[in-house]
Amino acid sequence: MNAMSHNQAGNAYNFGFLDEYAKKEVRRAILKAIAIPGYQVPYASREMPMGRGFGTGGLQLTLSLIGPNEVVKVIDQGSDDSVNAVNLRRFIEMTCPGVSTTTATAECTLIQSRHRIPELPLTARQILVLQVPYPDPLVVVEPSEDKRKTMHGEADYSRLLVKLYEDIVKFGEITISHRYPTRINGHYVIDPSPIPRWDVPKLNDSAALILFGAGREKKIYAVPPHTKAEPLAFSDVPFRVEDFRDEQGRRRACARCGCVDSFLDEFVTDSGSKTYQCSDSDWCDMQLRKARQTQGEPA
Amino acid sequence: MNKILEVRGLSKIYGPGCPQCLESTGPEADTNLCPHCGSVVAIHDVSFDLFEGEILGVMGESGSGKSTVVKTLYFDQAPSSGEAIFFDNDRQYDLFSLNAAQQRWLRNHRFGMVYQNPNLGLNFNISAGGNIAERLLMSDLMDYGAIRERAKALLARTEVLLSRVDDLPKHFSGGMQQRVQIAKALATQPPLLFLDEVTTGLDLSVQARILDLILEIQQELKTAMVVVTHDLGVIRLLTGRAIVMKYGRVIETGLTDQILEDPQHAYTQRLVASAL
Predict the structure, then answer these.
(1) Which of B77, B130, B150, B271 is the most exposed place for a label (fewest CB within 10 A)?
(2) ipTM given for this complex
């Protein structure tokens, strides 16, 4: 396999950039992470030809999972065309000859994403890899990793809940906008990477396997398919997602496709007014295509 | 009366320890530092019983090991040897054979601790109410409204102004910090409370109010307490029974009145004579 990929690629790198031993190690960590849902498995994060913090953790997962028939999609903040996504996609194309890439969520088998889970529900044959800057949700309340490990082991998350309590006291509601601490399978609480609150319910009972890779912090963790994922909340102050209502209380729609049930990004136009558009660019395109088809039929 | 706590042969040695440690330390040797191996025998062979609603005083000079006794019982430190059994209704726990998670459960649900330094008992970066909420959340109360009501009730009970429930304890006076600490310790209505030099360093009027509060709590809730102090006034006011420690050993035990009026050990005689 090694020699073959050299010939195919015509360069000195192994298929998937990482050597086979590195991939094996990452795969072992993945298996362990799936076996203990939400547990942060340490692994030897390799040097990648890009800075740590640019998605090296997610990339190592992707490169270890990728096979010759893979269809890969890379997104950054919902978009297939932002700098991070374009560069990672080109890197994968360069180092994984024969692998095809796509922007269509429905067609891909492997998604590497930063800060978003696609709007289109994922299926059992897909794997979602999320890039993680800070894997440990307890880091905000406990600086010592040693103590954090004990706290995770004993499921001692009271200090994290105190933070939510303080939030409600100060602001009348829980103000965490992203990286919302989420309890997996009734024990470990994870930092689900900087996805907005909108995406947190998608972790629960997901059909697809969701993997988290932190390259700088050297941790891999997983939400296996059909696993319970509950955002931390109080029994009388339930978790809620962003509501996107305007001053009149109407749900804002995407300015491009008119969708009223997607996560919206806010843009400031040249004239200074605000406009809203789907954050998931593939979803937005899908809605546009659908609208054109229905318009086209009666004519 | 129901027994709450039974402590037998509790010992704590800091350092490697050697066979001669025990005979070469203690009140007779006039040191707790072993001359052969340099280990500190902080406490050795401490035994006592504590009954429901009773306040036991532990007195002695600084370095006598009195704080170490409550720190081992509250699982802040592991003892070198010894046994302690905690009786909780119809259950009993052998404290030092429990695993870390079980010890943490007991600490959070059934024990309370008030430290001399509020820094140890409180998180200064979260509000007074949040500090109490932390303990309630540890005992799995997950209702924000209920937590808030309970925190306010506890702070009202310990005479902290309710308008300051959302202020940070670092902006409080020493006496108020101590009252927040007591409120936090009482949050889960524990049957057993440890008080480590709670009034030391506070001015006299504040001391008096905190001691009154402790007595009221004992009478209302029938909480058993172990009070560690070097202040004989506190011992006289609060406790029914007391043990006197020197260089890690118990040198005298008995009813507080008896110890203070008719001390038997030469050291206790000196202690009482110097203070009263």
Answers:
(1) B77
(2) 0.82
